[in-house]
Design a protein that fits this description.
- The protein has about 130 residues and is of the alpha+beta class.
- Helix content is about 25%, strand content about 35%.
- The chain has one domain: YjbQ-like (Jelly Rolls, Sandwich), CATH 2.60.120.
- It has a five-stranded antiparallel sheet, with helices on one face. It has a three-stranded antiparallel sheet with strand order 2-7-4.
Length: about 130
């Protein structure tokens, strides 16, 4: 089963917690045990799993990445978003997680984030559900 989640971003760089939306897709398909593959089909956005308890963590991540990979540097890519491509390549375009007892199997403080590096935009997140054989 493949679902598409549409996410509107508001700023150039931000992390948006999409855990609840992905859990809702799992609930809709009534998957009790299986795997969820989360893929971002954009070259300037990514997907990660990180802490979702402290609201400062997403901004710490984007601020640190922006210091390491500044928006304006001596890049040869002429569209003005080379930093976004590099950040996306480092963070990665997908994550695979387990579904256990109908829930995404995450650690106590973990959440799933869409990472925007070239916004604001409307982004797609593709969700592939694979149900375990019973």
């Amino acid at each position: 089963m493949l679902e598409k989640l549409m996410v509107d971003t508001n700023t150039r760089c931000q992390l948006i917690d999409v855990s609840k939306e992905i859990q809702a897709i799992i609930n809709k398909h009534k998957i009790e045990q299986g795997t969820v593959h989360i893929f971002c089909p954009h070259t300037t956005a990514a997907v990660t799993v990180n802490e979702n308890y402290d609201p400062s963590v997403p901004s710490d991540i984007t601020n640190a990445l922006s210091k390491l990979i500044p928006h304006h540097a001596d890049y040869t890519h002429t569209e003005g978003n080379a930093d976004a491509h590099i950040k996306s390549a480092i963070v990665g375009s997908s994550r695979t997680l387990f579904i256990k007892d109908g829930k995404i199997a995450l650690g106590t403080w973990q959440g799933i984030y869409l990472c925007e590096f070239d916004g604001p935009r409307t982004r797609e997140v593709w969700i592939k559900l694979i149900k375990d054989k019973e």
